[in-house]
Design a protein that fits this description.
By secondary structure, this protein is α+β, with helices and mostly antiparallel strands. It contains ten helices and six strands; from the N terminus they run αααααααββαβαββαβ. α7 (159-177) packs antiparallel against α8. The longest helix has 30 residues, at 3-32. The mean pLDDT is 86.
Length: 300
């Protein structure tokens, strides 16, 4: 890719991150702020600080993420840092604008009843933003930058447990933060904010991971057979797919066999199995493929 193409791609990604940041800010102001629960990551910390002190999440995001983006620029990945910086600045700016205007008519204020609904919406939107940001080599800032750095320093380290620990602490803290005093001034603690925080984390993780994995899922068949020519012909004519053939030797029988590797889409699994049933002395197993690249994407 030449420099002009890289520059155009960078501009397009920054524009995409700007739109995602706007969506993320609207998600926060419309569904989270009025319903007294903490979302995942550093935004959960910002939400609880705003609830207790009134300090805006927009300013908190700038204070935390600007230094983190500078850190990422020099120690992680410059492209990643720039796109994350764009997201964080736009997100903070939109949050501050929405706080300054009256959006009460479109805010989802459950007033403590059926609060699960705004959590479901916020979690799904949050996961959507997370997933698309990661697919563009960017992030929503905060803990995501820490995750990127940890992955770079130690690719074998599973950041899931670190992220889980952060969210667990936020969920636990929300038990105390969102306590409400009764008529006598005694704080009444409730597990509801904890449950809502965990539900948000779970839903956003599911949606985000699904988007990161991609929608071009497929299935890989590995077939050991003595009828490779016939099966190849069936794959070509009936499934309109190609295949790769390897030579193999049985460890027990020492007989020479052919191994066919073929990737098909989910709608062709049953037809592929029916093809294999027609040929005795054939063994096969199937694996899930999260995403495909290259010619497979153009096969009709």
């Amino acid at each position: 890719m030449d420099n002009k193409a890289k520059f155009r791609k960078m501009l397009f990604d920054c524009a995409a991150m700007t739109l995602l940041a706007c969506l993320f800010a609207f998600n926060y102001e419309l569904f989270i702020i009025k319903n007294h629960f903490a979302p995942a990551g550093f935004n959960g910390i910002a939400t609880m600080i705003q609830y207790k002190s009134g300090f805006s999440v927009g300013y908190f995001s700038l204070i935390i993420n600007v230094p983190l983006c500078m850190f990422a620029f020099f120690l992680i990945d410059r492209e990643f840092a720039v796109k994350t910086f764009v997201f964080c600045v736009v997100y903070s700016a939109v949050c501050l604008i929405l706080e300054a205007v009256d959006i009460s008519q479109i805010q989802y204020d459950a007033q403590g009843v059926d609060t699960i609904y705004p959590v479901l919406i916020a979690g799904a939107v949050g996961g959507f933003v997370y997933g698309l940001a990661f697919r563009r080599n960017s992030s929503t800032g905060g803990a995501d930058i820490v995750a990127k750095y940890v992955s770079k320093k130690d690719p074998l380290l599973n950041f899931f447990w670190i992220n889980f620990a952060i969210n667990a602490v936020i969920a636990l803290a929300s038990f105390f933060v969102y306590a409400v005093p009764d008529a006598d001034g005694v704080l009444q603690y409730d597990f509801k904010p904890v449950c809502l925080c965990l539900l948000y984390c779970l839903l956003s993780s599911i949606v985000g991971n699904a988007i990161i994995k991609g929608s071009k899922s497929a299935y890989k068949f590995i077939i050991v057979t003595s009828h490779a020519d016939e099966i190849d012909a069936e794959i070509f004519t009936r499934l309109k797919h190609g295949a790769t053939r390897l030579q193999a030797t049985g460890a027990y029988s020492h007989a020479n066999k052919d191994v066919i590797i073929c990737v098909v889409n989910k709608r062709q699994i049953v037809e592929f199995k029916n093809i294999l049933k027609e040929y005795p002395d054939t063994f096969a197993f199937v694996e899930t493929v999260n995403e495909t690249f290259g010619n497979f994407a153009r096969v009709k």
